[in-house]
Specification:
The structure is a single chain. The chain is α+β, with helices and mostly antiparallel strands. It folds into four domains: 2-218, 4-Layer Sandwich (Glutamine Phosphoribosylpyrophosphate, subunit 1, domain 1); 233-370 and 488-550, HUPs (Rossmann fold, 3-Layer(aba) Sandwich), CATH 3.40.50; 373-444 and 470-481, no CATH class; 561-625, no CATH class. The protein has 26 helices and 19 strands. The protein has a six-stranded antiparallel β-sheet. A six-stranded antiparallel β-sheet has the order 4-5-6-7-11-12, with helices on one face. It has a five-stranded parallel β-sheet with strand order 15-14-13-16-17, with helices on both faces. The longest helix has 18 residues, at 233-250. It is globular and about 80 Å long.
Length: 646
């Protein structure tokens, strides 16, 4: 696990090695164990290393036997030992035990199709100085990051955006057309980032840069579910268990200590239980919780740890620690942080880094096996909407108006009905995206925007493009596919950047692409059964864990953000949001913003998600655009986010 960076120029431009060193140094947290560089007339490669495999001879960049082809790589190839004998039989000579060298020789053997042979998580750049060709690729699900800037003459790449900004030809500017999507989701889903001119290589994509130009293409996709699935329920349960055991075992490959992030949910608990059966000694598990016990899952994690006998460790945080770290973590993530749980992930990563270099995590199963309640809720409401939509539109509008304004209903009942088909339009935008994803719906954005700032680009375009791309599939696979291409990718970036901020590698067994392909073939009724999401996965692991862990309601790692924002210590957040010099001042109506904050303070409206979106955008602007906040000093710039009160 490492950080990579570099460039290729179509014509020599004399960029000094000092620039490459600055770019690499900005990624030191990703690889504190060593660094390496390669430069020639047209290209430069930089690498900082977190030593996991082949501790003695695995330094990078490395080259082939002739010194003509070089690679800088970030990730782990879990089947590299299986690939090596065949490559050696074909005449390739190894000088290390590293998986890095296997990628290099596979590229020499298979060209761009080498990616089809790789099983793991990866982002790499291979420079062939003979043909002046750069070949780059990113793993199938997007576990490892890859960012770049291409201006037609110069291609600059890195594991994180901050490294690109160290190059003298790259400057930070906001891509305004993505603001609407950001305000809705908290992230952007396509190849463009909030930094104008800086792109991400999308998951399962590869690119080739040669003197004739740049070409980017997809090399893999989540398969469509076959029209007729074979096998009875027991077959699917056994196959799910077999594949899960295989992918967990593969991810135990390491020359350094490893552990497990344990939330107490079924995914991380099942992986921890399998690990405990596969390794000698006690598995080290790590959990994070809040002082507010009703938001904490620590009790469940402790129960699992005790049941399977792990060496368990915990960290508990409050608002002082949470908000004190936020600017630093926005700097690590390069873009605004989508979810408050990212901050908690940072704290548990820091806890784990004192004892291990590698952790396994439970990310991914909700998007593969339909674990989120929103899938069940939408499918049920969509069913009822089919009949309800036959009623006169005037009657439906009257019902929606009564629900939103009636004083006869309790606030809780009004909220629940307002989220149902009775209070919503029939479209997927209203009944699904506005309901479950969007902090700011398009209507809410319009109410908050300054005159003239209303047109900030499309809001749901990326999600809907993926959803609409498979019209021949049933509804559930289309929802899952759109999430896998958008929501999950951002979750994985959170996982990577928050763990790498503490120099720790995170591995996601549930997102092995063989398991992903299997999940796509599982029939809908085995993903959701009688209101139970992830049914097939839970059946496959129910012998490993207490039943109350396997079948408990999903909490989704909630954060007590609403409660914290109502405390006196949060007063500094209001002043940061309303700063006349901040990024928000250019786009938001000051009075509308003040009204939103006031309604939240009075408890009339829960605006926690919207305040979170705006706060992160404002801090991001201070750090990267205006440079008025030093992210390493949380109280600088426009002041501290949290004030400790007596």
């Amino acid at each position: 696990m490492c950080g990579i960076t570099g460039w290729v120029n179509l014509e020599p431009d004399g960029t000094p090695e000092a620039v490459l060193r600055r770019m690499t140094e900005s990624l030191r947290h990703r690889g504190p164990d060593g660094e390496g560089y390669y430069m020639d007339t047209f290209a430069g490669l930089g690498h900082c290393r977190l030593s996991i495999i082949d501790l003695e001879t695995g330094s990078q960049p490395i080259t082939n036997e002739s010194g003509d082809v070089w690679i800088a790589y970030n990730g782990e190839i879990f089947n590299h030992a299986e690939l090596r004998p065949g490559l050696e039989r074909d005449g390739h000579v190894y000088r290390t035990r590293s998986d890095t060298e296997t990628i290099l020789h596979a590229y020499e053997q298979y060209g761009p199709d080498c990616v089809h042979h790789l099983r793991g998580m990866f982002a790499f750049a291979i420079w062939d100085r003979r043909s002046r060709t750069l070949f780059c690729s990113r793993d199938r699900l997007g576990i490892k990051p890859f960012y770049y800037r291409w201006d037609g003459r110069r291609f600059i790449f890195a594991s994180e955006i901050k490294a690109l900004l160290c190059h003298p030809s790259v400057s930070a500017a906001l891509d305004e057309s993505l603001l609407s999507e950001y305000l809705a989701f908290g992230y952007t889903s396509g190849p463009r980032t909030l930094f104008s001119g800086i792109s991400r290589l999308m998951p399962a994509h590869r690119l080739r840069l040669s003197p004739s130009g740049l070409a980017v293409e997809s090399y893999w996709d989540v398969p469509h579910r076959p029209a007729a699935a074979v096998g009875d329920e027991q077959f699917w349960i056994c196959e799910c268990r077999r594949r899960l055991e295989e992918t967990v075992r593969m991810r135990l490959m390491s020359d350094v200590p490893l552990g497990m992030f344990l939330s107490g949910g079924v995914d991380s608990s099942a992986i921890a239980a399998l690990m405990a059966r596969m390794v000698t000694g006690r598995v080290k598990t790590f959990s994070v919780g809040y002082r507010e016990s009703h938001f904490s899952e620590l009790g469940y994690a402790r129960e699992v740890a005790q049941t399977i006998g792990t060496d368990h460790h915990e960290v508990v945080i409050g608002p002082e620690e949470f908000f004190g770290e936020l600017p630093h973590l926005v700097w690590h993530e390069d873009e605004p942080i989508a979810w408050p749980s990212s901050v908690s992930l940072h704290f548990v990563s820091r806890l784990a880094s004192a004892q291990v270099k590698v952790v396994l995590t439970g990310e991914g199963s909700d998007e593969l096996f339909a674990g989120y309640g929103r899938y069940r809720y939408y499918l049920l409401n969509r069913h009822w909407m089919d009949g309800y939509s036959r009623l006169p539109s005037g009657l439906r509008r009257s019902v929606a108006s009564f629900i939103s304004a009636s004083g006869l209903l309790s606030a809780n009942l009004r909220r629940r009905l307002g989220h149902s088909f009775l209070g919503r339009e029939a479209s997927i935008e209203s009944l699904y995206l506005d309901n479950f994803y969007s902090a700011f719906s398009p209507t809410q954005q319009l109410a908050l925007a300054k005159p003239g700032a209303e047109a900030m680009g499309p809001t749901y375009e990326a999600f809907l493009n993926y959803f609409d791309s498979r019209p021949d599939s049933s509804l559930l696979p289309r929802l899952l596919y759109a999430d896998q291409k958008t929501y999950l990718v951002e979750l994985l970036m959170k996982q990577d950047q928050m763990s790498m901020a503490s120099s720790i590698e995170s591995r996601v067994p549930l997102l092995d692409h063989h398991l992903v392909e299997f999940a796509a073939s599982v029939p809908d009724h085995l993903k959701i059964r009688n209101g139970v999401g992830k049914y097939i996965l839970k059946r496959a692991v129910e012998d490993l864990l207490p039943r109350n862990i396997v079948y408990r309601s999903k909490m989704g790692f909630p954060t007590p953000l609403r409660d914290w924002l109502l405390k006196p210590g949060a007063r500094g957040i209001r002043s940061i949001l309303q700063s006349r010099e901040g990024l928000l001042a250019s786009y938001l109506n000051r009075n509308a913003l003040a009204g939103l904050l006031d309604r939240h303070d009075r408890g009339v409206e829960d605006a926690s998600d919207r305040i979170w979106r705006l706060l992160n955008l404002q801090i991001w602007g201070e750090i990267f655009l205006a440079r008025t906040r030093n992210p390493l000093q949380g109280g600088s710039g426009n002041g501290a986010l949290w004030t400790v009160t007596a």
